[in-house]
Design brief:
By secondary structure, this protein is an alpha/beta fold. The chain has 2 domains: about 160 residues, D-Maltodextrin-Binding Protein, domain 2 (3-Layer(aba) Sandwich), CATH 3.40.190; about 100 residues, D-Maltodextrin-Binding Protein, domain 2. Helix content is about 40%, strand content about 20%. It has a 5-stranded mixed β-sheet with strand order 11-10-12-9-13, sandwiched between helices. Helix 3 crosses helix 9. It starts with a helix and ends in an 8-residue tail after the last helix. Keywords: Signal, Transport. This is Amino acid ABC transporter substrate-binding protein. Belongs to the bacterial solute-binding protein 3 family.
């Protein structure tokens, strides 16, 4: 009887603590005492694995701060982050299926994806360009005519280059890699003449290599990519908490400090700095931060 009474009291306490309009994700977080953060394997410097298997990065640091905001809002004493590795191909579905409460990486907020999931305020704005070997002589898209380009499965640059190839009749052979690391390997091995991806990710991949001088990023932007943390579509209360915290981090300049940490200073595991100052696109967007993007 005593055990039953204790269980009922605990259930009432949890019900009272949860927001009235809490959706499935908040209810899951509240009842389990954990929040699941999906992360990537090689999206440097946003979300990637160290040799010991720990996920780190700019987006990971932001997600941990967002998780703390959720803990405070729910008035929980503790909230344990758990980490789930995802790929470009399954990251969206993982959030849709409720296997992760946030996806912390380099995912573009676009109209197609907004049909399935929600996004918070962008933490980076980039564009797709081309990584080539420095001695290739390639400087723009037209020079890939009749050659091979690799991109990562499930990404917007892959979709965009496929469309551009068809529209311009360039006869480029486009191949898919399962992740960024494999695409980089294909370029290094001569299996592709270029790797098309968000330029910031290309810089990150090259910086981690001992032969970084052999590669360079070239060409005009093929796309404009507002990158943001992914959230469940059916949890407006969770989204409000996350959006409010992202805006607070930007207004307090904590987000800018994290940017400096991951883009301007040496980062693990090679302790090499990317030296990528914040671009004007992100600076302007953060003057009036919003989850609304024109794409």
């Amino acid at each position: 009887m005593k055990t039953l009474l204790s269980t009922l009291c605990l259930g009432l306490a949890l019900a009272c603590a949860a927001p009235a309009d809490a959706g499935p994700a908040l209810e899951r977080i509240q009842s389990s005492g954990r929040i699941v953060l999906a992360h990537r394997e090689s999206s440097v410097p946003f979300s990637y694995l160290l040799p010991d298997g720990r996920p780190v990065g700019y987006a990971m640091d932001l997600c941990l701060k967002l998780a703390e905001a959720v803990r405070k809002k729910l008035k929980m004493n503790t909230l344990n982050p758990q980490f789930l590795l995802v790929t470009p191909a399954n990251r969206i579905q993982t959030v849709v299926d409720g296997k992760a409460d946030m996806e912390c990486g380099s995912t573009t907020n676009n109209a197609e994806r907004r049909e399935k999931v929600a996004f918070t305020v962008p933490h980076y704005i980039t564009g797709a360009r081309y990584l080539v070997k420095a001695d290739s002589g390639i400087t723009d898209l037209a020079q890939f005519e009749g050659r091979t380009l690799v991109s990562t499965k499930g990404t917007t640059p892959l979709t965009s280059i496929t469309q551009a190839n068809a529209e311009r009749a360039l006869h480029i052979r486009i191949v898919e890699a399962p992740d960024h690391a494999k695409a980089m390997e294909m370029l290094a091995a001569g299996q592709a003449d270029g790797f098309v991806m968000d330029d910031v990710l290309l810089y990150g991949l090259v910086a981690a290599r001992p032969d970084a001088a052999k590669y360079r990023v070239v060409g005009k932007f093929l796309t404009i990519e507002p990158l943001a943390i992914v959230l469940p579509k059916n949890d407006p209360e969770l989204k409000t908490i996350v959006d409010d915290e992202m805006k607070r981090l930007i207004a307090s300049h904590e987000a800018q400090a994290l940017y400096e940490r991951w883009f301007m200073k040496p980062i693990p595991p090679k302790n090499t700095a990317l030296n990528l100052p914040m671009n004007y696109l992100l600076k302007d967007f953060w003057k009036y931060p919003s989850d609304q993007v024109p794409y």
